[in-house]
Amino acid sequence: MKAFLITPDTLSIDAVEIDDLDGIRALIGFDTIASDAVGEAGDRLFFDEECFLRGASGRFQIDRVIPVAGKGVVIGTADDGATLRDVVTDVEDLRQRIKYL
After folding, report:
1. Which residues, listed in sequence order, are joined to residue 86 by a DSSP beta bridge?
2. What is the DSSP string of the chain?
3. Among 3, 9, 29, 42, who pairs with 58 as Cys (CB 3.0-4.6 Å)?
4. What is the pTM of this model?
5. Distance from first CA to last CA of the chain, Å, rounded?
């Protein structure tokens, strides 16, 4: 499935292919992941649930979602986040909505 990897240390957003939650965990670098809805099309931001406890470098925020430290993955979901699918948000739209902190 198509997703976007956000790396705040380099201020980059890269298109990636992910098969499942394990793929998201591998990109983020941790097993403790959480997610928040971003937008109304079913896209979610996945991030390390313990990012602030670990002191991860680089922070960003999408819209008014709580800020995240470290890498994040935006991917489409269905069934209230239970099913992963291709991201709906356009990369340029996402770029305009991200604030690096």
Report:
1. none
2. -EEEEEETTTTEEEEEE--SHHHHHHHHT-S-EEEEE-SSSSEEEEEETTHHHHT-S-EEEETTSPPEES-EEEEEEETTTTEEE---S-HHHHHHHEEE-
3. 9
4. 0.93
5. 28
